[in-house]
Amino acid sequence: QYLYFYLSNECEYISGVSFVKIHAPWNILCREAELMKLKMPTKKVYEVKQLRGVVEKISSLVSKVVEPLHPQVEEHQPKNIKHLSHTFSREKQHLVCFLSTGITSLLGHGVYTAAYPLHDVSSPRLLYEEWANYGVFYKYQPIGLVRKYFGEKIGLYFAWLGLYTQMLIPASLVGVIVFLYGCATVNDNIPSMEICNTMNNITMCPLCDRVCSYWELSSACATARASHLFDNPATVFFSIFMALWAAMFMEHWKRRQMRLNYEWDLTGFEDEEDHPRAEYELRVMQKSTSKDQKAQHKVITWQALKTLCIKKLTCQDRLPAYMTNLVMMLLMIGVTFAIVFGVILYRISTKAALYMSANPVTRSNAQLTVKTTAAIINLVVILILDEVYGAVARWLTVLEVPKTDKSFEERLIFKTFILKFVNAFTPIIYIAFFRGRLVGRPGSYLYVFESYRMEECAHGGCLMELCIQLSITMLGKQLIQNNLFEIGVPKLKKLIRYIRSKQGAFQEEERQKKLQRYETDHFLEPFAGLTPEYMEMIIQFGFVTLFVASFPLAPLFALLNNIIEIRLDAKKFVTELRRPVAARAKDIGIWYNLLRGVANVAVIINAFVISFTSDFIPRMVYQYMYSPDGSMHGFVNNTLSYFNVSHFQQGKEPMDPLYLGHPVQMCRYKDYRDPPWSTTPYEISKEFWAVLAVRLAFVIVFQNVVMLMSDIVDWLIPDIPKDISLQIHKEKILLVDLFLKEEQGKAGNLERRSCVEGKENWSSSNNNNKHSSSTAAQPRSGLHTNSTNSL
């Protein structure tokens, strides 16, 4: 490839950095546009069919209602007028974008340190006023203007983010209703009332060995009432609703994407094979050079290098990189598991230490203190490991030496997603599915390192602890990582680059007056791609859908975050980042597959959360199988087993055998086991197996029903809107008609030209015959006159 560089007379030197303006000649632009198969509008326009009747009136009314929500962006042509578009040809003189593959290669080889298009003067002002301004948070985004300024790839990201935020509105409303339902029914919840009833006088077994004493079940009243806010019959409905919501979101995005493809003339666009990356070419050259030098012991010429570039890297060449990737990925996941295990040990040891305190307030708040501090520690570790895992994923991807930029991006996204997903959700998965199930029973507890007893859930269940962990992690990541880091880090990097420029921090105002546009853009943060933006939204989508059964307010907090996120990202792109090179894309790529995968996993996880983490299934089993009157009265007593305190292991019994001044003979613990006076003491009871069977049956039924409903939604909603398919069909007919008319016009012009040339040739021949023979001139003239008339 060849690049044509024109050095302008505005070359400047600032702190040893030289700026060169690069100009692409017109013939290069035309050639690249033709290679890109860029679709451009023709001069032929047609009127888009408008709605009629009642539908038109409703649409007009809706347009008037939402008119204040639209940005004040000038429309260059009426919405009902559409230009026919066709693939660019060099015969058509239209402006196109320049494909900067040569620049990328030069950057990869270190010829230039940076290359970026300059920010315009007028467009950023309009974008800032109508898009990047927090004061217009209630308005729709000017996606068309964003696409014209930044390109289709970035335009699709903000279109997807805007649609995702809009779809969170109904999910937030339903989640708030579910939460309010829990608040309204908490006083009527029979299990909570039984736990809070001090007259029941239920003595519970100690929560830890030696230092912990017996305790009254009524002391867990607050936890039981709080658990009902998130563990009630409406939770099942909300889980089904969110699964269908995810399917609706996917289908709605596909339709929105097709509409944007039509409006942006991307309907016939296909991703072309990318050019090899500079690092890949260099690696192939090094491999080929070393092999040829070993074989022939001679210097490689440039012609030989061009021939060697045809070769590719084989799987054998990449095998060490693949093995390194596998080992490092497993190692990083192991690090995450080790940190989660360390937090578990922190909870166990801290709880034991707080229960040994002489302060009764400290002992009474030990559970809440341990839960909150452990969740905060998990959040800090997640934030740190996110940065580490992002760097590790990039290093591993570079090690693989992918051939094209698209392959590099997809591999980097996949590795980063796996590591960050495991990092964010491993502590939550432990609390949801493992905590409280590996405990054992009084007299036969399970221990870690023979001294730390495994954790138990509170009597209200682990769902409340799951809610605390999920809310702190989600809100912390959104507040600290997604907002503060996005605001603070670019400004800090900009300040560092400015200090390194040796201009002086006190000459900022004067420097801004003197610097040119390309010099000002040099101090902005380089555009690093959309991967971080998509990644934080995919992780948030996981928080919203995966464990929504335990935290129905998650969509509301996601909505509030995204309202700020859209304007924050917009402001960052307009004022904090260098203008990225416009890139074409017809979809969001691998991110759609990740969204689809998260949505499918969410159905399974929510089924297990409802079935195994909450008490929904045990309550239903008791009410319909074991309750004497078909009500929930007696449910709490039914879930508690008996333990004879004389059966404690030596050295594990409480130091104080008395409780409230009375000796304790029997204590209760939450489990389905036979009492000590039965023929099979402390064995798992038949009721346990009945509850387990119903739990598994619920998982299977829930998963299949929700998947079926999602498939029905997918089948009912077409991927392409009907009006768009009709317009595409109409455009094809109009294009064929336009080309036929052009061909007929060319043929008519050619025929008339042939007739004129024939007449001129005949006249010239007739004049020559007159001069040569006067006797034959008369009849020949008559003959030719008749012939001419017949023609």
TrEMBL record:
It comes from the Eukaryota. Residues 146-731 form the Anoctamin transmembrane domain. It is a multi-pass membrane protein. Residues 759-791 are annotated as: Disordered. Residues 761-774 have a biased composition (Low complexity). Residues 15-95, 101-143 form the Anoctamin dimerisation domain. This is Anoctamin. It comes from Gasterosteus aculeatus aculeatus.
